[in-house]
# Entry
Amino acid sequence: MSNNESNLYNYTQSYAHLITERHVMVKPSTHHPYQLGASLYMPATRQDIWQVIKRDKLPTINSIIICLEDAVSHSDVELALTRLQTLLNTWAIHVDSINDPSRESGLQSEQQSEQQSEQQSEQQSEQKNQHPTRPLVFIRPRNPMMLQQLADYTHIDLIDGFVMPKVDMYSLSDWRMACQNLSIDQLLMPTLETAALFNPHHNQELAIGFKEAFSQPVFALRIGGNDLFAALRLRRPKNSIVYDTPIGTLVYQLLGCFVPHGFYLTAPVFEYLDQPTLFMQELTRDVSLGLVGKTVIHPSQIALVQQAYCVPMSTLDEAQAILHSEAKAVFKYNNTMLEPATHRAWATEIVNRADVFGTINDGHSDYASRL
# Structure
């Protein structure tokens, strides 16, 4: 990046000069970002969040985000914070009955995937994955100052992590300072939703900054579709998927910028409940682009998200063939050329996705017989 471009952010900290080989990959986490799945924002003023965490309500939800920002009016902030502390106290009392939000088997290793491939091919299309004991739980504060305040809350370490709104190079230093008192095991999800994100040079510096700024893992980057529309004085059209709008063009640019640096991105929300067919069309594109989850605004959307992320058996078979220890450098499968050297990263993500969402039998599974 030239000096002129870097000087665009001269009143915030620049990280471009700090990049080193040890930061080539993002710090790994216990969980895989695919576990975000369908994410539901819940205002912190709600009194039924504990029922959702212990799965008395919304038993199939993958992750929830307790919101202290846009979903809470300024006059209700103190009430929201009080109810959040009450929630944490209740959770601490019952912590032994609420286990880690991972499947007992964990994410499959390549060897385990190979050994289980033949057994999986016999499963029926209605196969259902066992849900974790609880969803992943995140908090979205209003600003860095509130995040610093939350770091001192009793039992805050029970939370899996934090969603940070409106993060860009102008606010990154403030968010970095706010995270210094958080546990290094908590997960961070910065949200890309400001006008600065339309500048590709800004995004390259931000990608480096994310890897250098935090001691905690950056679990995923959330794409804030509605705020990005607002930056263009637009609203999402009711009869189009997001990829047919200027924000869709930006999503492709964000993928090209952040994914090569090792980050995962989540898909923008779809806010129209009376357009299920259009919702599924958008989900299909989300999945094909490798976006790891989608915000839902209503329980009726949860099953559609999980259905879209379910992996066809033939696709899982291709992934397992690519990852097989005896796979040839190039080979044919289902009239398709497979090349482990270039397809391995894709195959690994398919296995991870199948471990979270399960598989469907699409009638084209013959991987075992081909090896």
Q: What stands out?
A: The first helix runs from residue 3 to 6. The first strand starts at residue 37 and ends at 43. The two ends are 48 Å apart (CA to CA). The mean pLDDT is 86.
